[in-house]
Specification:
This is HTH CENPB-type domain-containing protein. This protein is mainly α. It is built from six helices and no strands.
Length: about 140
Amino acid sequence: MPSSRMPKSMAEKKAVAQWIEKNGGVPTPSAVYFKNERGYKVSEAQVRYWWKQRTAIKAAPALRSRLTGAGAKPPLSEIEDILFDQVLFCRSAKEKVFLDWIRDAGQRHLSWAIQISLRRTAGSTASCVGMGCRCAVPPILLG
């Protein structure tokens, strides 16, 4: 079954943004206009998103279909690496590591990663006792 998504070029998105600017600055009625008059398959939500991103759309080349930074986000491989290293440290210290601990530690690392905005903080001497592990090996801090 083919995809139902109809990609729109940046030129079409620019035309929508220009029509909104010219006709009152309200994005929702433009979806009705572009559906009925021009035959676009576009939803009101898409038009509102394009209107919100209008400065980036105007700056983008006309032949592109996506904005820079749009699309799927990369997986958080750094958190996976940190958890793997912590499991190895705990197992080398003869600690038992359970799946519940791994899940909880991953959630803590994720919330911590959001708080510190993924900055590198290498060289910490904190033990991983606060992370749920009782071994004396310092954790690898998320950057």
